[in-house]
Specification:
The chain is α+β, with helices and mostly antiparallel strands. It has 4 helices and 10 strands, in the order βββααββββαβαββ.
């Protein structure tokens, strides 16, 4: 990464990736409060107040320059927030970041998560000049594994009973992609 990166909205064929805003509350609550959507996430379904706090926090972060800096971006489809892209700069020195996603279950199967993640990967390997992006996920999360594979990521590791998630020790799978492997390069 050459210099601090300040996020500006990204446009794809059907979506806009942008910062969260207060008026997104109902849309975000619809999926952040759904037990199936957050099954593999490190939090329980969130209350309306908790979602409002998260939206305010997510909307306040737009610069990535130091290890641990992150962006949580709204996936906007025609003015409706249908999910999020999570992006964390894990190492400036090694030019590495982690990517994650969540999508309102009503919108699964239409390619929206792939489109949004691909836009963020374009940015990661383009404007941010990163070398490697990885996803860490629960290996029971078949849709996320399928998305990793559609994005061209490869399975790199399986950590057994790696994370205590909602009172249960769960495995953690790592999928990765190098800049030279990204088709958008």
């Amino acid at each position: 990464m050459r210099k601090p990166y300040e996020f500006a909205p990204l446009q794809t064929a059907r979506l806009t990736l942008r910062l969260f805003e207060r008026h997104d509350l109902d849309d975000v609550y619809a999926w952040m409060s759904h037990p199936d959507t957050v099954r593999y996430m490190p939090f329980e379904p969130r209350s309306l107040d908790e979602v409002a706090e998260r939206i305010a926090f997510f909307g306040s972060r737009r610069v990535v320059s130091l290890d641990g800096d992150s962006l949580d971006l709204a996936i906007d489809l025609d003015g409706r927030v249908i999910g999020t892209i999570h992006f964390v700069l894990t190492s400036v020195e090694h030019r590495t970041a982690e990517i994650g996603w969540a999508l309102n279950r009503e919108f699964e199967g239409a390619g929206y998560a792939r489109e949004a993640a691909a836009a963020m990967l374009d940015e990661a390997f383009g404007a941010l000049a990163l070398h490697r992006v990885f996803a860490q996920l629960d290996p029971r999360n078949a849709p996320s594994i399928a998305l990793c594979l559609r994005l061209g990521m490869r399975a790199e590791a399986l950590h057994v009973e790696h994370i205590l998630l909602k009172g249960e020790w769960v495995d953690s799978a790592i999928y990765g992609l190098l800049a030279r492997e990204w088709p958008g390069r």
